[in-house]
Design a protein that fits this description.
By secondary structure, the protein is α/β, with parallel strands linked by helices. The protein is built from 43 helices and 49 strands.
Length: 1111
């Protein structure tokens, strides 16, 4: 009734309140913060809930509290006077146990939580660990070598609220989660608990900590996940539109209501207040505000005088065409009359469309035929704008067009030549196509508009022309889909994204939302932004276009987006929502980097043998998809030689065009000595992924026979592969399209018959949401060969993802699915030994590193050691380096503990610092006479209530002006409680972290690093720490500002891409990655494949010691 309006009920009259009460039959309510706070009932809550029940309304208590069982919650509620039964209580502990039971889970569960979870697990006979304290005793080295023990049969990690949260628990959870088959479940992600004057870190803070360390996302069982109350909806107990959700927390309770389609009521007795809601409604998030129109209120409900005043303030009105004025060939009711009335009142009216299938003249004729009074000069079209752009720049070459007649007619009108358009279907194999492809040397631009005959050959030609850096890439628009009733019709943007991904270049977009689209009108003074209204149906083109131009914007709900979308954007906490960011590719930097790697990797034979001898397992890529068609010289001999030396050798390919059996036969024919079990293919893995899920529906395939054959082998139904071309008009095709009713998965692999009909069907099936899986064999963008760029599976995947607004689950490389069974069985160890560091590992020097460093010093280079290690002081690090024969001064060592102390010396004018950290941090603070407390063990010894009372007293009486987080093996819930309250109650309190390294990985376990601890505190206090270590450039600012180093003449050497390489890039240094830590060349290749260029160094070498030969 008051949808998304944040109406204050107490300000409404009695009649409206009665209507509101009659608008729902069921009530779901949160507990903590709504019915009670801690152990105290909130005044009036008992009477209201019991009265709801007396009125015949169904009531349910829906809580994210996992500390109690349903029975225990029932006892608590009844003792407070609530009239409720056990079946009317929905709790996350019970829901988690039910989830595991429904999956026939038969392993052990590692629980971070309380007895509420374990008792619910016991009720279903699911085995688990004993909950309670698990504190760190002694030092970390002793703990890991003598007391750190992992159970063998753990198949799930469950995280709930745990007042005994500790470093050992984080380490164990992350270590279990190293197994990709281990489930990761969170009861909820509440950041904090509602308390009148305290901040109590909630489960979400603990979950974030584990996620950061494990580098995995948890499955959240509780609110706002729909699954927590899905059973009530599915069995008809409640009807969403007749259900009220009451809560005190917007990002769980209210969001659950939104997700389920319930009415929602926020109460001010818990976490969020009306002030918070009002602040969100006027969010200053620029990217979200761009998508929020000025008029998302129903203008028809405004008083007529107010509406007329708004219209009179305008001088010009620009309206979209499709979705606003017409749909296909039919005018939207009332739109001609409204448009003409504005014209007759002296307003300058324009139709502004991204439609590139028609010329301006054709669009004018269409509009006039529907009754719109408009001239050709008042039509702004993307095809006309594109042609004018090329004319104005004096373009004199040929244009390769992916598009329709409207585009080429506009080009012809300004004298620009182009290649013929029309169907260009795939005939024969990729090899055949590449042998016969005809490329015109005089093409100087590729232009992309809507093309219902979009095909693999067109994609290949476009990307091949774009290999020339001076070839223009222009797009008429980037609309994802067109409004077409119940159908999902892929639009130009899908094609553009596919070409951008393959060509590794962004297109210049001529249509909306590009401001240049109406530059001529603005330049000539025909319209003034402050008195112009943009009318549209699409947020990320029409409304965004208006924003970019400074126009007023009016959103209409007759096309692509709805008011519900607008409200979702307005209130979303997702900072990345609908950002229209075009990928940027740095081809020159990448080429330079590749050349450097070739030069540095010329090792001598002995070094090469040493590297090979350390390997136990070899995973070897084969071809791309169908390329190359012949065996690489000497490769069978090398492969077989490795097998003879006792190496476990696998062929690991993303090729989805062939079955595993076919690839085995091909490899055998080429002379590779290999068993079929040692071939890992994306198609085979994908089929078994679905089999393991007990998938029983039909699979829609965009791909080749390899996928189909692997699905057949495990008895999974699928659609036919092969051509599916548009052999009639698009309108006729839509009217006669044949869709399968039982499709439960869309699988995308390499498909040389990709076409608009295939994209259309895929998007239609994926509109089912979670009911339809979205899988991709791989995301390889290109397969180079024979002078042309051959698009790979990734191009198709990105196109489908863009149109579906969903991300595919990748089965092939770089996903771990491809070899997870080998890792699980122990056949494949990710690393025999993982060395962490550039110069040393723990107390062992990496071979030849001191010689390399000393040689650099002797050549007059300024050498600095920059470390994120916060377990040692700068002096201790210097002593360690000297003992390993490094010739370096103490002043040339930059450590985060020293940086933190120096920062506080300059900024902490009074008060004390609270430290989560170790002895090194304490020593550096002491050396600079900074008062602090905190290091060492600090656990909850009595009850949580006693600890809360103690911290509350500390917060009010203490003068804590800084909170510092470093590595702390004694990290505990109590330390979190203290830190969070010091920060919450003092907005000026300094919040520092030594670094944000998240995890240290060993072969069989993971150790949380400082970043995981920082993440836990940040999540609770909703503040970001100032990071004093890498990759923050503040670490090097002093050296740069004092002129001690010149960024352009500085090389950053490191073993971690996320700290060392990113740090170097932030500072403007050259970067050299060494492979003696966590990241090796294979990881760099993965970053290149995934376009994560921020992690790609300028140079790579296996070990810094290998660099000595170049000095």
């Amino acid at each position: 009734m008051f949808t998304r309006s944040a109406t204050v009920l107490l300000e409404e009259n009695a009649g409206k309140l009665v209507n509101w009460l009659n608008s729902f039959d069921a009530v779901l309510t949160d507990c903590d913060g709504v019915l009670w706070v801690y152990g105290d009932v909130i005044d009036g809550s008992v009477e209201v809930m019991n009265r709801f029940k007396e009125m015949g309304k169904k009531i349910f208590f829906c809580t994210n509290n996992s500390a109690k069982t349903r029975k225990e919650l029932l006892v608590k509620a009844q003792q407070m006077g609530f009239n409720v039964t056990e079946n009317e209580i929905i709790s996350t502990a019970h829901s988690t146990a039910t989830y595991l039971k429904q999956r026939d889970f038969n392993k052990n569960v590692y629980v971070i939580g309380s007895e509420g979870i374990t008792k619910e697990l016991d009720a279903f006979n699911i085995k688990h660990n004993t909950v309670g304290p698990d504190h760190m005793t002694g030092n970390l080295a002793d703990y890991l070598s003598t007391r750190f023990k992992l159970e063998n049969n753990v198949g799930a990690v469950v995280v709930g609220f745990d007042e005994h949260f500790s470093f050992p628990k984080i380490a164990k959870a992350a270590s279990y989660l190293n197994d990709p088959d281990c489930l990761f479940i969170a009861t909820n992600t509440d950041e904090r608990f509602p308390m009148p004057s305290m901040v109590i870190p909630g489960t979400g803070s603990l979950v974030r900590c584990i996620e950061t360390c494990a580098e995995r996302q948890a499955l959240v069982i509780g609110k706002p996940n729909v699954s927590i109350c899905a059973h009530l909806i599915d069995d008809g107990t409640i009807k969403p539109e007749r259900t009220l959700m009451i809560g005190d927390r917007c990002n769980t309770d209210i969001l659950l209501g939104y997700n389920c389609g319930f009415q929602t009521l926020l109460v001010g007795t818990g976490v969020h207040t009306l002030e918070s809601v009002r602040r969100w409604q006027t969010s200053n998030d620029d990217e979200l505000l761009k998508l929020v129109p000025d008029s998302c209120t129903d203008l028809t409900k405004l008083p007529k005088a107010q509406a007329r005043a708004f219209i009179n303030s305008l001088e010009a009105v620009i309206s979209d065409g499709d979705g606003v004025l017409w749909l296909n060939d039919r005018a939207i009711a009332g739109s001609p009359e409204a448009f003409n009335a504005l014209t007759s009142r002296g307003k300058k009216t324009f139709i502004c469309t991204n439609n590139s299938t028609r010329t301006r003249m054709s669009l004018m004729e269409k509009a006039c035929g529907m009754g719109f009074k408009v001239t050709v000069d008042n039509i702004i079209s993307s095809s006309h704008a594109l042609a004018q752009y090329l004319k104005d720049m004096g373009f004199d070459k040929l244009v390769y067009v992916i598009g329709r007649e409207g585009l080429i007619q506009e080009l012809a009108a300004v004298g620009i030549k182009y290649l013929e358009i029309g169907s260009d279907d795939m005939k024969g194999t990729v090899k055949d196509m590449m042998n016969t492809i005809d490329l015109n040397d005089n093409v100087g631009a590729v232009v992309v508009g809507f093309d219902e005959y979009f095909s693999f050959p067109k994609l290949t030609k476009a990307c091949s022309y774009l290999m020339k850096p001076d070839c223009l890439l222009l797009a008429t628009n980037t609309d994802e889909r067109y409004p077409a009733g119940e159908m999902i019709l892929p639009a130009t943007g899908c094609f553009v994204r596919a070409i951008e991904a393959c060509a590794e270049r962004p297109a210049k977009v001529m249509g909306k939302p590009n401001k240049e689209f109406c530059a001529a009108l603005l330049k000539n003074g025909l319209i003034k932004p402050q008195t112009t209204l943009m009318v549209g149906d699409r947020g990320n083109t029409d409304v965004l276009f208006g924003y970019n131009c400074g126009f007023y914007t009016l959103f209409v709900g007759s096309g692509t987006n709805s008011l519900q979308d607008i409200e979702k954007w307005r209130h979303s906490t997702d900072q990345e929502l609908h950002k229209q960011t075009i990928r940027r590719f740095f081809s020159k930097n990448l080429q330079k980097y590749k050349q450097s790697c070739t030069q540095l990797l010329k090792l001598d034979k002995k070094e090469a043998r040493d590297i090979i001898d350390t390997m136990e397992t070899i995973l070897c890529d084969a071809d791309g998809e169908e390329l190359p068609v012949s065996v690489h010289p000497h490769s069978p001999r090398i492969f077989n030689c490795l097998r003879e030396r006792g190496k476990k050798c696998y062929i690991c390919t993303n090729n989805s065009t062939r079955s595993r059996d076919a690839i085995f036969k091909k490899a055998s024919q080429y002379g590779f000595q290999i068993n079929i079990e040692n071939i890992l293919t994306s198609a085979h893995t994908l089929a078994h992924y679905l089999k393991d899920l007990k998938f029983f529906k039909t699979v829609y395939i965009i791909g080749k026979e390899g996928i189909a054959q692997e699905l057949d082998a495990v008895d999974i139904k699928h659609t036919k592969t092969g051509p599916d071309i548009l052999n009639c008009s698009l309108k006729e095709y839509i009217e006669n399209i044949r869709l399968e009713s039982d499709v439960g998965a869309v699988v995308v692999g390499f498909d040389d018959h990709i076409s608009l009909p295939k994209l259309m069907k895929a998007l239609h099936y994926l509109e089912k949401g979670e009911q339809c899986l979205f899988l991709a064999t791989n995301t390889d963008e290109t397969y180079p060969g024979m002078g042309v760029t051959c698009p790979g599976s990734g191009v198709i995947v990105r196109s489908v993802e863009f149109g579906a607004k969903r991300t595919a689950t990748i089965i092939g490389k770089p996903s771990a699915y491809l070899c997870s069974s080998l890792m699980k069985s122990g056949e494949l160890q990710p690393e025999t030994t993982l060395m962490i560091g550039v110069l040393w590992y723990d107390d062992q020097q990496i071979p030849r590193t001191s010689e390399t460093v000393n040689a650099l010093v002797e050549q007059g280079k300024d050498v600095y050691f920059v470390t994120n290690n916060s377990t040692k002081t700068r002096h201790e690090l210097w002593l360690k380096a000297r003992a390993m024969n490094f010739s370096i001064n103490e002043s040339n060592i930059i450590s985060p503990t020293y940086s933190v102390a120096s920062y506080l010396k300059a900024h902490l004018l009074e008060g004390k610092a609270y430290v989560i950290g170790g002895e090194a941090l304490a020593k550096e603070l002491t050396a600079m006479d900074i008062e602090f407390f905190g290091p060492g063990p600090d656990f909850i010894e009595r009850s949580l209530a006693d600890t809360v009372e103690m911290v509350d007293k500390e917060t009010s009486e203490g003068n804590i002006q800084a909170v510092i987080v470093g590595f702390d093996e004694h990290f505990s819930y109590k330390k979190m409680l203290r830190a969070c309250n010091f920060l919450h109650n003092n907005e000026t309190c300094i919040f520092l972290a030594t670094n944000d390294n998240a995890v240290v990985k060993y072969p069989h376990r993971s150790i949380p690093d400082t970043g995981a601890l920082v993440a836990a505190v940040e999540t609770c206090v909703e503040r970001k720490a100032l990071i004093m270590g890498k990759p923050n450039r503040a670490v090097a600012d002093k050296l740069i500002n004092e002129g001690l180093i010149n960024p352009e003449r500085t090389l950053m050497i490191g073993d971690c891409v996320k700290t060392d390489v990113v740090f170097g890039k932030h500072c403007g240094f050259s970067t050299l990655l060494v492979g003696t830590g966590r990241y090796q060349w294979k990881h760099v290749e993965k970053f290149l494949e995934m376009k994560l260029f921020q992690y790609v160094p300028d140079f790579y070498i296996p070990s810094l010691g290998d660099f000595k030969q170049y000095l």
